[in-house]
Amino acid sequence: MVRYGFTARFLRLTVAGYLASIVTVAAAVWFASAPVLHDMQNGAKRVHLETKANVIAGLLDDVMANGRAVSSDQNTIAFASGETGLEQDTKTRLSDLTNVRLFDSLGRVLFNRPTLSAGSPFLEVEGKEGLAEMVAGRRALLPRVLYRPGDSKFEAHFQISIPLLYENTVAGLLVYESHMDLTAVLSSADDVLVTMLLTPFQKDKWASWTDGGEIIDVQIPDHSFFVAAQTDRSVFESIGLDLVLTAISVAMVALLLPFALMAFSGMRAIVRPHKDLLESQNLLAEKQGELEELAQIAEMASESVTVTDENTRIIWVNRAFTTMTGFSVEEAVGQTPRQLLQGPETNKEARNEIRQAVQARRPVQTEIINYHKDGSRYWIKLSIAPLISLRTGELRFTAIATDVTEAKEAQHTISEAKRETEHQARHDPLTALPNRRYLDEVLESEVCNSAAARTLIRVDLDHFKNVNDTLGHAAGDFVLVEVANCLRRSIGPNDLAARVGGDEFVILLAVDGNTDKAKALTEKLRVQLGTDMVFEGKTCRIGASFGIATASEGLVGNEDLLKSADAALYVAKDTGRNTTTLYTPDVHHAVLAKRKLSSEIEQGIARGEFIAFFQPQIDALTEELVGVEALVRWWHPTRGILPPNEFLKVAEQLRILSDIDRQVFAYGLDCMRILNEDGLRIPKISFNVGMHQLMNPVIDYLAGQVKIGNTRVSLEVLESVLIEEDASGFQARISELRDMGFTIEVDDFGSGHASVVGLKALNPDIMKLDRVLVAPVTESASARTLIKSMVEIGKALGISVTAEGIETAEHAAIMRDLGCDTFQGYYFARPMDFDQLREFIKDGYDTKLDGVASIAVQRDRLGDIK
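^ Signaling protein, sequence as received from the core. Prediction below:
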């Protein structure tokens, strides 16, 4: 009776499990396949929409190609830039575009031709949106396409805006429209219910405008609008239901046999319950034999196995223990592992960890140093666990040890290599001093956020370049190493010396360092570094300049020490070198003033405050005006007209000289244009240009844009280019400038390293003798002889000679006799602004006076022009 009761219950459970399995399979099929079916359906629709999107993108590319051709036309760009005489040509080029408008860079309409009778769905402001940001450089210089739906379902209106660019500068904006009938592209006969072209706003709102269904959208490539469709979900649900019914049918057949077998096997298990009880009894009888087998396995194991009593005395070891340690079984039994294996270098932390685990009778794993019988040490990975004896119930401890010496040594080697690599990354390889990275880390972690005031010394070697240039880099390296050794010997144990650049060093004093200690240290270093150093029998002479900044006096904080010491060092080098300068309120104010001046220079460039003054150049024989030299001036809004020495040095440090040169060049050309339009012709205007400006094609562009009549443009380069610039690229550039009509002059010839070979290679049109050579000719025969030689060199090479610094009539007479062609100096006129230049020219040409009298009359009328 009991047997049949167990059987019926087991069968009921089996049938219930069978039915539950079928339901589970059906549910699993539905939930597993539904996403796949859904993704497949949507994927097909998305591919369909991507094809439509690519077709529309291709149509737009064709429309935009016409606009790009017009926007890249140089005449169109010139017309947008304000050049006259191109209006008819531009209108002709724009005639193929629909509803076209042309804006200049300020957003003003230069051309507007509506061609559609229905008008435009776009506002004018939409077309030129973003123009100001592109002009200011805050927006990418890329075309923009706007979309508006038409009156019919598949009608679309597009507006294309393309910037007109010259040299990455926005000259204007071309805006036109295209109206398309996209019926052939967007219509579909399949189960897609609705296909539309949408803006991002319409796409977000479309779901609320439709009657349900799922929305699929694809963005038009390279544009900000979408092709979207609404799908029919009933198709997906029908396919899913068929799949589930099929899965149920298959599951019913597939699960029938397994559950029948399970029922048969289960019945046997139910009627024979005593079998498990019998097997468990037999298992207990077999345990003793298994323990003996485990002991044999432990004996054959490669890991050392040790068994100790509750007092940690060894009672059994395996063969691997004797092999690893060198101790025999007899030598080990009765000893404790600590007495037998541990020694002076055994790590105390691991020893304490083991003792605490044994006392608490819990397992422990650790790594520890042990010693072989011969006294050599080795590392082991040790696992200890408590064990209760089955026969006696006594406490035992089992220890399994693995030799990990090779792994630990490899780990140590890697750590040492990593430590060495980190050391090299934070130290200078030549001097072994800490480098800039090390110093920055110390300043950030220990100094900037410290409450204790610190003191820092900035060291820069004087005349180090001379050592490199005359004795070679090996001598230079020797000097740097000697300087580093000197710093090490001179600083305190808690001070830090670092090499932060080529010949630049920094000393960070300890917390107790102050201004007095810093001054004493720099004076000591100044004397030591001023002593001659001998390298391979050659004497190396250097010096050092020092800048000191301290936070102890409250002028600066710890976070500003380095840049404050830099400022003090700059003053030290600027005032004669081989000296020490402390960062004081005066230096602080000078730094603030320099920062203010830097900001004002940048603002002045933005506001176009840099202009040209003009100094006339006079023919030496006829004393007629033959040209002017444009000299840079800053028309400061509060300080008035400033000469170059007030701002050029700072501008050079800011690397913005090219921007100032560009403004002066444009200003000078524009002044010449105005004078020529007024009938006051100047034969030549000269501009001082550095190498950066000479190689810059912007001077080609500016000279071509400003119509200055017959006035020639001359470019003055310093004589240093005769020996510094011998590359073929430089010579090719000079030839190119000559071909464009520029005159080439060498300025300040004879003031530095005059090179006749370089002069012949450059072959300038004019060479200008520096005023330092001209000034002494009234008193020195040797000076006159030198000038005569230079003039003869120029004449021999076919070069016209201009003399600067003509201050007196005697200067003019002597230089005329020596053969100079052109004069420039205060005797004839000082540099003058544009209005003064206009009056100067008018007076000279109106009076029609000749010779010195004409120039003298002009000087009397203009006075001492500054």
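Residues 305-410 form a domain with the Beta-Lactamase fold (CATH 3.30.450.20).
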